[in-house]
Amino acid sequence: METRTTGLATRGIDPLDGAAVRADFPLLAAPPEPGTARVAFLDSAASSQKPAAVIEAMDAFYRRDNANIHRGVYKLSERATAAYEAARHTVADFIGAASARECIFVRNTTEAINLVAQTWGRRELRAGDLAVLTVMEHHSNLVPWQLVAAETGAELAFVRMTPDGRLDLDHLDTLLARGPKLVAFSHVSNALGTIHPAEEITRRAKAAGAAVLIDAAQSVPHVPVNVAALGCDFLALSGHKMLGPLGSGVLWGRFDLLDGLPPFMGGGSMIRRVELSGSTWADVPARFEAGTPAVADAVGLGAAVEYLSALGMDRVRTHERELLAYAVGALAEVPGLRTFGPTDLDQRSGVISFELGDIHPHDVAAILDEEGVAVRAGHHCCQPLMRELGVVATSRASFYVYNDREDVDRLVAALHRANRVFAIG
Amino acid sequence: MVDSLYREQILDHYRNPRNKGALDPADYSHEDQNPLCGDEVRIDLRVHDGIVTEVRFDGRGCAISQASASMLTELVEGRPLEEVKAITKDDLLDELGIPVSPARLKCALLGLKCLKAGIYGVKSVHDDEL
């Protein structure tokens, strides 16, 4: 990556050029059909596009290194194993893990949280125990705990939010005074983009004696994240939201905690010794990776992390922060448009959740699609949060490294067309 | 411009829904939701001598779900119940006359699902059975 020394570099952070980054992404670089416009892809909060580096890393794995891992004594299997474990180290370094052993490959954030709920949760939570979540959680950090609570009799309580979509930390303190066993929260809200003060929340939760799980699905792709600085016990992330393959994800856990946990799923790879009468378990992380894992996907995730590292996460954040500011200004000119979430953009990632007059979000998204602008519409897997906002659904535009002001301009133009179609403004 | 979902006929039914309201009592009544987008539709029918004499729908949601329900009420009013039972999803989609993508099919068919579930007295009708 070329290092520039002009412009914003004097302030310490070099800007990204969205159009130049886009050239690395085959799907975005060319129009879907000849004669059509390229897709203005504004739904990276749902899943990101993949750079050629990721696609090629997976392709190369299947062409050159493919074999099952941790078994064969032949060279192919050794190469496959080395590639898989190298990816684990790459991810571990990226999030500041003390050791690669603390990183467990899973399919996605949902599986990572279910792993903690079913191993740590079922063992540690008892009838009458309290687990604190927030009203803003994605269903993936809510439903797994509802399942465990129903089984164990533990109680769930939810930190309230402010009208502008931040967490009410006074209410957190009130709940912490009841001595919860667990505090589990999202670092960045997928629906509103709120960047929660994760270090502060974790510090208070740990001081109250709770274990802390952070859903980092929307933070690791967009802001610098370091598990040691956060001070949490578990952190879950999805590879597909950070330029990696679909079906790749990681659970990070503090080694001493993971080391004491029972298995999640049983099968090959996760055992030490198997008798007909019972079995003993492999060391961490193999204990939590039953069966043949998605090796090529882990390799692809490693390549995605290397790509992001080369861009620099500070620059990624700066780029998205600038794009967000530009978009907030541009959208203010669209008649009938109302946005949700924090007005302080330092507390917000590149996500804009909005309503357009009384046009249903699905109609808004469908009209934008007719203009080649891809946004998400719906409840964003956050039905309780939608109820807090008093809406059924919102439309959501989200930015990433390959977006630029042209994407925002196309969004705005398409929103004007939606207003014309529905005869507003 | 591209072939839009939002043709004037759809927008007209959305802005000026036909047969909107409720029938109390109704001979057949059913309400259902589209969990994907939260669309809601209820359809009430009165049947006399095997003919659908009155029909009302109520609901809220996207233009496609509400316009489709509105057009459905026009399609069934005054027709024999046996004919109404035989209305298929293709009949309704023809009536809509727009290119409904798979993602919006659930919106477009919500009213018909309500109608069928109401007439047959079942909890829900699967899209494949419409």
From TrEMBL, chain A:
Transmembrane intervals: none
Pfam families reported in the protein's UniProt record: Aminotran_5 (PF00266)
Cofactor(s) of this protein: pyridoxal 5'-phosphate
CDD domains cross-referenced by the UniProt entry: SufS_like
Function recorded in the entry: Catalyzes the removal of elemental sulfur and selenium atoms from L-cysteine, L-cystine, L-selenocysteine, and L-selenocystine to produce L-alanine.
Family: Belongs to the class-V pyridoxal-phosphate-dependent aminotransferase family. Csd subfamily.
Protein name as annotated: Cysteine desulfurase
Organism of origin: uncultured Thermomicrobiales bacterium
